[in-house]
Specification:
single chain; alpha/beta; Rossmann fold; 4 domains; six-stranded mixed beta sheet; 20 strands; 38% helix; 23% strand; globular
């Protein structure tokens, strides 16, 4: 089988961030090739480079004999590469049919004069395009007879995803790149997308699939490449990739100096089979009798996307509770809902008698629930000290504030050393320390930590988790969302495993550490 897309040592850096760092890849004509990796691995950046949205820094790429290096997006599209987007980018006010026709732009010659003169040839071409667009809608499972005239923005979420694929197909591509086509879909919709991908491939289309749903990727792809920190760390069949030690380490993390052989599910035999059977049910005996935080049947949506579906969990005072699961499982959405940043569709969330579903974010913080958000959200242009001072601005005890700021800088000595530097000049690990320190200055009784190790080097991960342990030892209750499942389970008293918005499994940290269902939730299979 011949190679359709070839990448040779492609690089793209943003300042000191090596978003794509020397990636080489070959995609065979007629195949479905998967591209996976943790958050921030460089997947979408690589696609943006291939498709001309972001320029190459170095390296080269070819679509068969056509070189893509340095071409703008419209020329890449004309050569036969079309794509969908992680976040739907339809023309919401145009009809569904008009959106598909818009995807035919590379197939149209300049017909301005024909349009002005209303010549028969223009009318024939227009009818032909409309007929082709209706056929494409039908091909992706959208009934053109019913939906063609509807505004794209009024379609259900799953139908909008399908419409974006129809628009991409209108280009008549040689390579179709699908970026998170199943994001936010329920299991039935995901099965429909899987069947569509398989059908398109059977018709001869080559597909590059990026998705966080490992069951989808491992189920439809012939080969899978894995990125981590901008580098390709593995490539092979789904079976090879899902059991690769480096891939497990990238997704689940490592336990300090421990070998990756301790990954969840590493144990074999009858015990593993028993654990898989038990994974379908919750373990109520692990739940605390009394709790400072109680969440019951929480459901949260973004428009038509059901991000969290009936989640229930409890956190007792003095615990570290981990919330783990694959990218896109709904973990951060739960934390943002608890912080009052998102309002749920229904369900309850109560923190020490305060109704979090109704309270203002400021009231929630004042009550003692504080979030350290994913991405840190520090004020990059302000100094380290100014960031810390802003965290205490609502308090009137000047001497007390200064003493607490000095105390957190003593806990994190690097912040004291860099107090006069702009926060944006700190390393990623130092910025994370600053974000945690800022959260502590709000004097939390329950600290929500969202991906504290994201993007950090292993040595700095050790420092962050050491700080988390010390904070807990001093009496702070912690709800931890963390992509590094091994480190999270090691530090947690209890944990919940979230998958597609639902809690699939719960138990003690030690029990889940050796449960193969945890690895399955991340890597499928």
């Amino acid at each position: 089988m011949s190679v359709l897309l070839r990448l040779d040592n492609v690089q793209r850096h943003f300042g000191g961030v090596h978003a794509v760092d020397g990636v080489s890849l070959e995609i065979e004509k007629g195949s479905i090739h998967g591209l996976i990796g943790p958050n921030g691995a460089g997947k979408t950046t690589l696609v943006n480079v291939i498709t001309g949205y972001v320029p190459f820094q170095s390296g080269r790429a070819w679509l068969q004999s056509d070189e893509l290096t340095g071409l703008p997006a419209y020329r890449v599209a004309a050569l036969g590469i079309s794509r969908t987007f992680q976040n739907i980018r339809l023309f919401k006010d145009l009809t569904a049919l008009e959106n598909v026709v818009a995807g035919m732009h590379t197939r149209r010659h300049d017909d301005t004069l024909a349009q002005l003169a209303a010549l028969p040839v223009f009318r024939r071409d227009q009818r032909s395009r409309m007929d082709d667009a209706r056929a494409l809608m039908d091909a992706v499972g959208l009934a053109a007879g019913d939906l063609a005239g509807r505004a794209a923005g009024t379609l259900p979420y799953g139908d909008q995803r399908r419409l974006e694929i129809a628009r991409a197909l209108a280009l008549r591509p040689r390579l179709l790149i699908l970026d998170e086509p199943a994001a936010g879909m329920n299991p039935s919709e995901k099965q429909g997308i899987r069947e569509l991908i398989e059908r398109l491939n059977q018709d001869g289309l080559t597909i590059l699939l990026i998705d966080h749903d490992m069951r989808l990727v491992m189920g439809v792809c012939q080969r899978v490449a894995v990125l981590d920190f901008g580098r390709k760390i593995a490539e092979g069949t789904p079976a090879e990739v899902s059991t690769d030690a480096g891939v497990i380490k990238a997704y689940l993390g490592t336990g300090g100096e421990k070998e990756v052989k301790s990954a969840p599910g590493a144990s074999a035999g009858a015990d593993a089979e028993t654990a898989i059977e038990l994974s379908s049910s919750r373990q109520p005996d692990a739940e605390p009798e009394t709790a400072i935080l109680e969440i019951e049947d929480l459901t949260v949506s973004y428009g038509a996307v059901n991000a969290v579906r009936g989640a229930s969990l409890r956190v007792a005072a003095g615990e570290v509770v981990a919330l783990i699961g694959a990218n896109g499982a709904g973990k951060s959405t739960i934390l943002n809902t608890l912080s009052g940043l998102i309002r749920p569709d229904y369900g309850t969330a109560v923190f020490d008698r305060l109704d979090l579903t109704r309270a203002k974010p400021s009231a929630i913080v004042h009550h003692g629930l504080v979030q350290v958000p994913e991405g840190r959200e520090i004020l990059a242009r302000q100094t380290v000290l100014e960031n810390l001072e802003l965290a205490t601005w609502g308090r009137r005890d000047g001497a007390g504030k200064r003493a607490q700021i000095e105390a957190v800088m003593k806990r994190f000595p690097i912040l004291g050393e860099r107090r006069a530097l702009r926060a944006g000049t700190l390393s990623g690990g130092e910025q994370q320390m600053l974000a945690i320190a800022r959260g502590l200055l709000a004097r939390p009784r329950l600290l929500l930590l969202d991906e504290p190790s994201l993007g950090l080097a292993p040595q700095m991960v050790d420092e962050v988790f050491k700080a988390i342990q010390e904070i807990h030892d001093e009496g702070t209750t912690i709800l931890l969302v963390e992509q590094n499942a091994l480190r999270a389970l090691e530090i947690a008293d209890r944990a919940y495993v979230l998958e597609t918005g639902q809690i699939r499994l719960s138990g003690t940290g030690d029990d889940l550490l050796h449960n193969p269902a945890v690895r399955r939730a991340y890597l499928g299979g």
